[in-house]
């Protein structure tokens, strides 16, 4: 049977191809993410444009842009995905609190020690409940939330990359701030160090566009200072601290990560820890689509985690070695 015009436009493959290209605005990059060849993607987009009867993209030089029809298609596609996500959530609301899967995305720069402890404890109580935890970049987390690939995100807030909070809710886990790790013996006795005094040597940093990299750059801009020169980039705090100690580069890492570190051992390696002045504060939080908490296993997970922290707070659990 010949497919209708609507079936040609709104097949899941067609929508995913269009949405990925609209996200990246780059045929090569979109094709790589989708796992297809660039000519295959081009052919699918041309087929879609022929079906709707209008071009969806146009080029200015090497830059790809959405046409008026493309913008309409993008809005409609997002509306369709929103309806599908809400439908899936409503169906899952009738499921059990102690069985099924919970998919969690964790910002890759966050220490997962406490969450691993909690998930192990939860498994002992509910072995039929499967928790899938993945380390993701900032961009991957938001794409996964929008596309309903994860139920919960564990991330830092406030995040300036979030343009529309309407579909989401957040549940605060703890407040955090940044500690400055340096090798300047003249500043070793200071508890707080001004930003202008942190530029004496290169830094080891998080990759560009990571949350902590972005808020540091914003603060240097606010202080009317150049960003520190980056000598190396790593995605996890463990990697960054080891590199800083071994190379003599400066860095800044969350207090929650530094809380269980042996300050004396660091000082013996000519490495000192202080707060920045002004201090940089942020929250660690669960972020989820509004309807997710209505799913029994997700709501139960969040309630159980609250109870877990009521027994012993987050920072204290970071210090535990079990």
From TrEMBL:
Domain HTH lysR-type: 10-67
Matches recorded under Pfam families: HTH_1, LysR_substrate
GO molecular function: DNA-binding transcription factor activity; transcription cis-regulatory region binding
Gene3D superfamilies in the record: Periplasmic binding protein-like II, Winged helix-like DNA-binding domain superfamily/Winged helix DNA-binding domain
Keyword list, A-Z: DNA-binding, Transcription, Transcription regulation
Annotated InterPro entries: LysR_HTH_N, LysR_subst-bd, WH-like_DNA-bd_sf, WH_DNA-bd_sf
Assigned protein family: Belongs to the LysR transcriptional regulatory family.
PANTHER family linked: HTH-TYPE TRANSCRIPTIONAL REGULATOR, HTH-TYPE TRANSCRIPTIONAL REGULATOR GLTR
Protein name as catalogued: Transcriptional regulator
Biological source species: Apilactobacillus kunkeei
